[in-house]
Amino acid sequence: MIYPQTKPTNSNGSNSSKHSKNPPNSDNSSDRRFGAGVYNKIVESVYAFAGSVSKYDAWQKYKVLLKNQWLSREEIEKLQWKKLKAILDYSYRTVPFYKNKFDRAGIKPEDINTPADMLLIPITTKEELMEEKMPLNPDLKAEGLEWIKTSGTTGTPLNWPFDVKTYSIKYALFLRGLNYTGWQPGDKIASLWWHTHSSYGNESFSKIKKFAYFFGHRRVLFPPITRDSTDADPRLLKYIYDNLASSPPKVFETSTDSLLMFGYFMEENGLKPLKIENIISIGLLTDAIREKLKKYFQGEIFNRYGPHEMEGIGHDCSRHEGLHLSADSYYFECMRGGKPAKPGECGNFVITDLDNYTQPFIRYKIGDRGSFSQKMCPCGRGLPLINYLEGRSADFVINETCRKISPRQILEFFGNYHEVKFFQLIQDGLIKFKLFLIVKNEVYLEADKIKQGLKRVLGNSADIEIIFTKSISAEPSGKFRWVKREI
């Protein structure tokens, strides 16, 4: 992990060296971590008791994670490296797939002693793992294993096993992310996902999850508002709106595109903004989209990064300076051209899971791109920051000089065009692009302005065909992609 070299500061800008023992109150969640309400206390007591008498010890892990976040940068780095050495040693001894990787590279776990040494370990891709027989560890017993799969946004899903121990730490990381918003176990959560999300029927550890969702989260799970396009069901939107308005949850979690669909529906039907204390947006979230959503939702908007393979990688706090990396559970690299990217430089995310001994992910190229931040968050947490994500690697388009342009860059460009509700830019040739637009008004006069502006981003030779439409297709997974490269 490459950490920023600046010292953390507290809310008045002075250096803070005691945040590991005395978490500052600058963040809206720091003084509410263990609950103030009677029901919250009951939930915490039940969670703690369950963890002491059963194998589901997520609560105990959660409390450790809450303390970890306030450790100093050096303390987190030390903990991270200790866990990294342990998972490398385990993987080499018990998983033939990784032993073969190490042997072919002519290295052993004891050779990895510095961040530079990590570059000696070959990167693992999703495609490689899909060719392997699961579980990778031949000694794992089928009893007690549950199977997880990725959403398959840009291809075939990856299936891999989880055990109770791994599930518990991932759930604890999920809880810590919620804690950044001020949520406490027992507070109500409302969730809205795409139709292939595991919540709608194929969840692992479903019995314990149902109990946790019902008792610990008081979760309301809304039906998907759309299956295959930006055409959301208006009756369902009205039903969800009425539910959220009459009984607001502490947290409403959904995808960025679903929040926009919801907001446009409210605007078109003259509905009042929803008063929800915290909204968690999954997916790309630009400053312009955040500001747009504030018209529809009177609450604080957070961003979360947690792919199915690795729950709880990153979450922003109330300072919104970037996403706090769970460096106590993941070793995170940002690679560009085979070398570590500089702070602020966009690269491929390569992640080693420090807690998953059922299905080790060692230097796993997860398929997302972004950059490290040079800042330390003024909230006082010692966890490092990444800047907000740039998008899936497969969705970066290429301009005439072969420079890669991220989905975030395209989203930021459209932040100035307030009449555009949704767009999808598809690159289907070296300089050929199709731009699908959904606009608010029947007569739209800025198409030429958009085309000329995009040429400044994509290159003067870009051949851009603009297609006005009422609906844009989603992926088979139900997820929406703002940008697609089909060459």
Shape: globular
What class, by secondary structure content? Answer: alpha/beta
Q: Termini distance? A: 33 Å
Largest β sheet strand count, sense and barrel closure: 8 strands, mixed
What helical percentage do the residues reach?
Answer: 25-40%
Short description:
This protein is an alpha/beta fold. The chain has helices at 38-53, 58-68, 73-94, 96-105, 115-118, 126-131, 164-179, 206-216, 234-246, 256-268, 287-293, 407-414, 447-458; strands spanning 124-125, 146-149, 159-162, 189-192, 220-222, 251-255, 278-282, 300-305, 314-315, 323-325, 330-336, 339-340, 347-353, 364-370, 385-386, 391-392, 397-398, 404-405, 420-427, 432-439, 463-468, 483-485.
Verbal overview:
It is a single chain. With 487 residues, the protein is α/β, with parallel strands linked by helices. The longest helix has 22 residues, at 73-94. It has helices at 38-53, 58-68, 73-94, 96-105, 115-118, 126-131, 164-179, 206-216, 234-246, 256-268, 287-293, 407-414, 447-458, and strands at residues 124-125, 146-149, 159-162, 189-192, 220-222, 251-255, 278-282, 300-305, 314-315, 323-325, 330-336, 339-340, 347-353, 364-370, 385-386, 391-392, 397-398, 404-405, 420-427, 432-439, 463-468, 483-485. Helix 2 crosses helix 7 (164-179) and helix 3 (73-94) crosses helix 4. Mean pLDDT is 90; it is low at 1-35. Strands 5-4-6-7-8-9-10-15 form an eight-stranded mixed β-sheet. Strands 1, 11, 12, 13, 14 and 16 form a six-stranded mixed β-sheet that branches. Strand 11 (330-336) and strand 12 (339-340) form a beta hairpin. It is globular. The two termini are 33 Å apart. 42% of the residues are buried.
